[in-house]
Amino acid sequence: MKDKVQISRFLSYILRHAPESIGLSLDDQGWGEISQLILLAQKKGTPLTIEIINDVVKTNDKKRFAISEDGLFIRAVQGHSLKTTVDYQAITPPKILYHGTATRFIDSIFNQGLIPNGRQYVHLSQDHKTAVNVGNRHGKAVVLIVDSEKMFSDGFEFYQADNGVWLTLSVPVKYLKIEEKE
Ligand code: HQG
């Protein structure tokens, strides 16, 4: 049996990026039928049960997934590259948000602003530590401070996924600064 981290990665890949890789269909809100997922994953050599799925959803460190109220469907709450996906409500962001990245991306970011790259949205966090962790995944971490208050008053929309991650379509350079190290 694969461990929970492997199952979480598998579910992230299927539900955010490539449901078709196992033949699963998602609706336009990103929901896939759990019974189908189990059947199709089994065929591709990843045995899943409803108990394993429930356990991964419940105990996932970043609460990446949600199960529908009737218990029949599952979706990723953020991180999609798929176009057809979760409709987020636009809401007022906090004054500032953080974005963790790697030093090697800084020149390009200060040229083009933050762009979603493969995903649908740029991911931001309210919490500094999360930004450092996200940055460390890509190399030497550097934290950018996003003037979300100004962006919002200039008409940019912000969304928050169920797990607290903040999303916006892009962040132009003028709203970005590198965090000063003490
Ligand atoms: C960078 C995790 C060059 C951007 C986290 C980042 C997050 C640019 C990388 C979620 C750029 C994209 C997303 C530009 C942005 N030039 N590089 N103009 N604009 N970048 O993995 O934000 O564990 O797609 O700084 O918690 O790192 O997967 O995005 O370094 O919420 O659930 O391009 O992934 O969640 O990398 O992470 P990613 P991310 P999970």
UniProtKB/TrEMBL annotation:
<protein>
    <recommendedName>
        <fullName>Probable RNA 2'-phosphotransferase</fullName>
        <ecNumber>2.7.1.-</ecNumber>
    </recommendedName>
</protein>
<dbReference type="GO" id="GO:0003950">
    <property type="term" value="F:NAD+ poly-ADP-ribosyltransferase activity"/>
</dbReference>
<dbReference type="Pfam" id="PF01885">
    <property type="entry name" value="PTS_2-RNA"/>
</dbReference>
<keyword id="KW-0808">Transferase</keyword>
<dbReference type="InterPro" id="IPR002745">
    <property type="entry name" value="Ptrans_KptA/Tpt1"/>
</dbReference>
<dbReference type="InterPro" id="IPR042081">
    <property type="entry name" value="RNA_2'-PTrans_C"/>
</dbReference>
<dbReference type="GO" id="GO:0006388">
    <property type="term" value="P:tRNA splicing, via endonucleolytic cleavage and ligation"/>
</dbReference>
<dbReference type="GO" id="GO:0000215">
    <property type="term" value="F:tRNA 2'-phosphotransferase activity"/>
</dbReference>
<dbReference type="InterPro" id="IPR022928">
    <property type="entry name" value="RNA_2'-PTrans_KptA"/>
</dbReference>
<keyword id="KW-0520">NAD</keyword>
<dbReference type="InterPro" id="IPR042080">
    <property type="entry name" value="RNA_2'-PTrans_N"/>
</dbReference>
<comment type="similarity">
    <text>Belongs to the KptA/TPT1 family.</text>
</comment>
<comment type="function">
    <text>Removes the 2'-phosphate from RNA via an intermediate in which the phosphate is ADP-ribosylated by NAD followed by a presumed transesterification to release the RNA and generate ADP-ribose 1''-2''-cyclic phosphate (APPR&gt;P). May function as an ADP-ribosylase.</text>
</comment>
